[in-house]
Each structure stands twice: as structure tokens, then as C-alpha cells.
């Protein structure tokens, strides 16, 4: 049986955001160990219809499989305010690497997002 671990944290919105609704928020735990290949999704979760606004903090928690200690993991967040339009104006993305330890639970992670 594959060992599971908990990934928990918050998505943080900037202070210059209009209040509104996000149609979907996608949170991905990605393996970015190999520099010459695309990253791979290790685990992911989706939140639907989430209120967003200035300095809002959106909590998340999901389970992920254990990986080898040599793996380099990061979180990627995409906030879609306009369903069906990829990276539309007013959407948000995480733009800095949020490292996640390869082993054990990872709690208290903070993932800032930036408007596209």
C-alpha cells in the first residue's frame, strides 16, 4: 500500500484584488526534479466557486503520495475567474516556487498568487 501524506496551506491574494468569485482554483503538487523535462503532477485538488478579494486567504488540504527523498517538489496554483478561458485577464497564478518537502506532512504552506 502506498504511503500517503498531508499537504496543507493557504492561497494568499494580493491587496489590489476586486472582490468576486473564482469559478475554479486548481492546486497541484509538482515534481520539478528534472531540469530538462516538463514537471509532472504528483497530486492535485480543485476548489469550485470560491470567494476572492483583497488579502483573502483560501485554505487547502489534500493527500499526496510519498516520494523519494531526492525529489524536488513545488506547489502550483491557478485561479480561474472566467470559466472556459485559459489565463484570462483577472485570473491568478502562483509565480514563485513554493517548495514542499519530499517526505512527511507539509503544513502551514503559504502560496501567494499574482493577477494575470
Q: What does this entry look like structurally?
A:
This protein is mainly β and about 120 residues long. The radius of gyration is 14 Å and the shape is globular. The chain has strands at about 5-10, 20-30, 40-50, 55-65, 75-80, 90-95, 100, 105-110, 115. The mean pLDDT is about 90. The strands form two sheets. Strands 2, 3, 5, 6, 7 and 9 form a six-stranded antiparallel beta sheet that branches. Strands 4-1-8 form a three-stranded mixed beta sheet, with no helix packed on it. A hairpin with an 8-residue loop joins β2 and β3.
SSE succession: EEEEEEEEE
Distance between the termini: 41 Å
Shape: globular
Classify the beta-strand content into a percent band: over 45%
Structural class: mainly beta
Task: Report the count of strand segments.
Answer: 9
- Number of helical runs? 0
Task: Write down the Rg.
Answer: 14 Å
| Global mean pLDDT | 90
Report the uncertain regions. none
Measured as a percent range, the helix fraction is under 10%
Largest beta sheet, briefly? 6 strands, antiparallel
Descriptive keywords:
single chain, 116 residues, mainly beta, 6-stranded antiparallel beta sheet, 3-stranded mixed beta sheet, 9 strands
Detail the topology: elements first, then pairings.
Elements: E1 4-12, E2 20-31, E3 40-52, E4 57-65, E5 73-80, E6 92-93, E7 98-100, E8 106-112, E9 114-115
Parallel strand pairs: 1-8
Antiparallel strand pairs: 1-4, 2-3, 2-5, 5-6, 5-7, 6-9
